[in-house]
Amino acid sequence: MGGFNYKDIYIEDGKRVLEVNILPEKYCNFDCIFCPIGRSQNKVDTQQPFDDMDNSLNELENMIEDNKAELVYINSKGEAFVNSRIDDIIALIKSKGLLVRLLSNGYLLGRDEYIRIANKCDEVIGEIKAISEGDFQKVQRPIEGYTLEEYISNMVSFNKQYKGKFILEVTIIKGYNDTEEAVNKIKDVINKLCPDKVIVERMDDEKFKKKLGVSDERFDEILMQLER
Ligand code: SF4
């Protein structure tokens, strides 16, 4: 257990980006049927202690220095907030004068303890996939008691007080959110959320592409309607 994983450093908008996974295995509050990481054995929304975190923090510091990173993107195997040392991870990155981008599915952005953490990041990414309550339960299989309504309102209330850059990632899934009606609902959510940027993607994981991927033509139409 323990240890972070890194992607090779890359340049984005002229900045050197270091992408890091801070979870030893999948820990998520959802269990999406199309999750590229696989099933959620650890379906949690509370913080967990992981082994070797002090060593992992030292390693992160070395990675930042060796790669001359300018932005650290926390993109984890699940929901990064549940690492009980996430505050220390962000503090370390900020102490080096770097920008921090945090990927979350967004549900936990409604809880004070996680709002406080996300507010320390320069960029936060939230997500939208299913757009009806039934589909949310069926395909994203969240922790019991979660609702789509609360999911969206958590992100809306977070972004109302957030001073950084809020990015919304929308994933189009054939049969779930690719109809005109669904796209209009997504548009309404975008209007409520007022993100600084919207990124629209489609299911492109080889395992799910055939069943859940929309055609190029339909995807282009949806992009025209949603991207800003
Ligand atoms: S929210 Fe992301 S990491 Fe979590 S189960 Fe869904 S696809 Fe996987």
Automatic annotation (TrEMBL):
Q: Which CDD domains match?
A: Radical_SAM
> Which keywords annotate this record?
4Fe-4S, Coiled coil, Iron, Iron-sulfur, Metal-binding, S-adenosyl-L-methionine
Name the UniProt record assigns to this protein: Radical SAM protein
Coiled coil ranges: 50-77
* InterPro entries in alphabetical order: Aldolase_TIM, rSAM, rSAM_sf
Q: Where is the Radical SAM core domain?
A: 12-228
Gene3D superfamilies per the UniProt record, alphabetical: Aldolase class I (3.20.20.70)
Q: Which cofactor does it need?
A: [4Fe-4S] cluster
Record-linked Pfam families? Radical_SAM
